[in-house]
Amino acid sequence: MRSLVREVHLHPGALILPLFLCPGEGVRREISSMPGVFNLSIDEAVKEAAEAAALGLGGLLLFGLPASKDDQASGAWADDGIVQQGLRALKSQASKLLLIADVCLCEYTAHGHCGVVRRDGEHYEIENDASLELLAKTAVSLARAGADIVAPSDMMDGRVGVIRGELDEAGFDQTPILSYAAKFASSFYGPFREAAGSAPQFGDRHTYQMDGANLREAMREIDQDLAEGADMILMKPALPYLDVIHAAREQFDVPLGAYQVSGEYAMLEAAFARGWLDRERAMMETLISIRRAGADFIVTYFAQQAARRLS
Length: 311
Ligand code: PBG
Prior knowledge:
Layout (H helix, E strand, L loop, with lengths): L1 H4 L9 E7 L6 E4 L2 E7 L1 H13 L4 E6 L9 H4 L4 H12 L4 E6 L12 E5 L2 E5 H18 L3 E4 L6 H11 L8 E6 L6 H7 L18 H13 L4 E5 L5 H10 L4 E5 L1 H12 L5 H15 L3 E4 L2 H8 L1
Parallel strand pairs: 1-3, 1-4, 1-12, 4-5, 5-8, 9-10, 10-11, 11-12
Antiparallel strand pairs: 2-3, 6-7
Helix pairs in contact: 2-4, 4-5, 5-6, 8-9, 9-11
The structure holds ligand PBG.
Ligand PBG binds next to helix 7.
């Protein structure tokens, strides 16, 4: 009877699994702050994708660790970039899964910022408009390699419009944009930066990611991204920002996802390892809470575990 009267449900098709692709072969390197999450070479990622598809997951969100980094983030937009190669392999071998490619520069720049940086001694500035060009180039290159959706997470102003324009120009007018419209400058991204090797080498991300105190500003960011042509929006982090997810759901009638980020995962795994929380119950409770707040789909490192539980 509880199931019959339950207001929100979870299903594997609404879960998206992030994968971190790295060069090499047979590589499966666990991230120390995220037990059960790995840097995977493409051959290993293909195996992981097959398992994800068998579990009925909605899709994969792809990040890359390039062999080398530079100031122009060339690994992000190179035809043979790590994610581009991964997309081609996954497309041919795991075609059932939706492949979402993260669009950002931080994994590919030597300084670890999400945009182009101008430095003048101690002072530095993120060059918003110069970054847009590279981001659009990255999005087109990912679409060309087979991305079903591109997901800009850089938080530069105006990027959705520029990416939409360049995608259309290049003939990818059918490729949707999932915009990380409200992405807060959060301490909960810490473990991800270990996983993706993307911690900023100086300064922080507060000039482009949002202030966690600002809900109304988050609504303005979403409004802008939708006006520029975003097809769906992603909110992150999830659990500390359920009120923002809820407000977005009330205000915008578009597909809306939430990203249960690395720190949320790490925090729970740490408690599970100590036997302080019940793994299955706590995991499912966080996911259902994110759905209840209003997310249609959830990006989560628990995707496989939760899907197994659900089936
Ligand atoms: C890239 C990006 C980040 C995350 C997703 N895309 C890191 C950041 O902004 O520093 C974080 C995801 C997670 O913590 O799981 N800009």
